[in-house]
Amino acid sequence: MEQRHPLPPFTAATAQQKVQMAEDAWNTQDPVKVSLAYTIDSEWRNRSSFINGREEIVQFLTAKWEKEHAYKLKKELWAFTDNRIAVRFEYEYHDDHGQWFRAYGNENWEFDENGYMQKRYASINDVPIQESERRIL
């Protein structure tokens, strides 16, 4: 199987690199590109949704970004161990009616030996904001 560097076990530098790679990929809003960082049978919990495998990841992200316009995300490394990384994040977007939101959340990631994310558990809350309150431009 192809490897997706950096590989576990993570150091502070390689964990930060994984976080930045994820942030960059998600900010493309390309569901297929994002899905390639995950194992074929990756397991997600995203809010109250349970998602399994790349095909469902692509479907989920396609629907997400059809509703979340001008999406911009910032991730921050929170903690790491051998093959796990914890991330704090926030992102901003507006809906079809022009209402802006800032979403806050935490993610727990687990990687396989080839550097692909096999588990992603995300807890997220959305807060309505005014466009003038945006911080992530």
Tell me what the structure shows:
With 137 residues, the chain is α+β, with helices and mostly antiparallel strands. The protein has one domain: Nuclear Transport Factor 2, Chain: A. Helices cover 26% and strands 45% of the residues. It has three helices and six strands, in the order ααββαββββ. The protein has helices at residues 12-27, 31-35, 53-67, and strands at residues 38-46, 49-52, 69-80, 84-94, 100-111, 117-129. A six-stranded mixed sheet has the order 2-1-6-5-4-3, with helices on one face. The model has no long low-confidence stretch (mean pLDDT 97). Pfam families: DUF1348.
Structure summarized in a few sentences:
This is DUF1348 domain-containing protein. By secondary structure, this protein is of the alpha+beta class.
CATH level-3 fold name:
Nuclear Transport Factor 2, Chain: A
Number of self-contained structural domains? 1
Q: What's the mean pLDDT score? A: 97
Distance between the termini: 37 Å
If helices are DSSP runs of H or I spanning 4 or more residues, what is the number of helices?
3
CATH class membership: Alpha Beta
Largest sheet: 6 strands, mixed
CATH architect. name = Roll
Low-confidence stretches: none
Series of secondary-structure elements, N-terminal to C-terminal: HHEEHEEEE
- Helical amount among residues, as a percent range? 25-40%
